[in-house]
Amino acid sequence: MAIERKPIRRGGIKSAGYDRNARILEIEFDGGSVMQYSGVGDEIARRFLSSSSPMSYYKDVIDEEFTQKRVN
């Protein structure tokens, strides 16, 4: 499944995208790794994608809270 990611380029995150139907948030980090987080609700994804500090939001709300899978 390909999730369209949009450039973020802030705080160590290169790009991110969200699949609303599958409830999967995909994040590409500056180091090149791509992670998918499942079970992410619309509001959390929206707040992350529009955050002025996406890495802080990621660490506080997403990391370790959702099932993650490395895709690259």
TrEMBL record:
This is KTSC domain-containing protein. InterPro entries: KTSC_dom. Residues 13-66 form the KTSC domain. It comes from Uliginosibacterium silvisoli.
